Amino acid sequence: MPELSLHTLKPAPGSRNKAKRIGRGEGSGRGKTAGRGTKGQKARSGGRAGLKLKGMKRVILRIPKMRGFKSNRPDIATVTLAQLERWFENGAEVTVKVLRSRNLIPMNSWNAKVVFTGELKKKLVVKGLKTSPKAKEAIEKAGGKVESDEAKKSK
After folding, report:
1. Residues paired with residue 55 on neighbouring β-strands, in sequence order
2. What is the pLDDT of residues 107-141, one digit of tens each?
């Protein structure tokens, strides 16, 4: 380490990088016009339009604009029979909560639907999920049960 004396003192690296404060009076060195020169489009606030100038207007007008409403509510998640076969043991209960905990559906999914893709040989109890007709048939054929909320509502 070099000898410490008044003529060797230096500030820590990076500690003296002050940002130049613009538009804070003539004494600041960047007052009055704040480094923008005088008059003209670039001197005004919001004066750097970029692509909206001149010829790009044609391109911008041709880009499709969003209309209407896009819901933030996610679509119903799908689960296949092959996933149920792989992730559940014989006699297990399949619910939305269990599917979320095993990361088979997104955490913000409010419901799920079992679709007929793959094979199912295990006896499973599917509760509160929507099922396609073929998937329901396959679950029942394997000895499982489908208990949906819709069946309870209709009774």
Report:
1. none
2. 888 899 999 999 999 999 999 999 999 999 999 99
Helix (H, G, I), strand (E, B) or coil at 51: helix
Report domain 77-154's class: alpha beta
How is residue 27 written in tokens? 């004494």
Model pTM?
0.52
Using CA atoms, how far apart are residues 76 and 124, in angstroms rounded to an integer? 21
In whole angstroms, give the CA distance from residue 70 to residue 111.
Answer: 19
Report the distance separating Cα 113 and Cα 135, nearest Å.
10
Q: How far apart are the first and last CA of the chain?
A: 86
Q: How many residues does the chain have?
A: 155
Q: Does the structure show a pLDDT above 60 at 150?
A: no
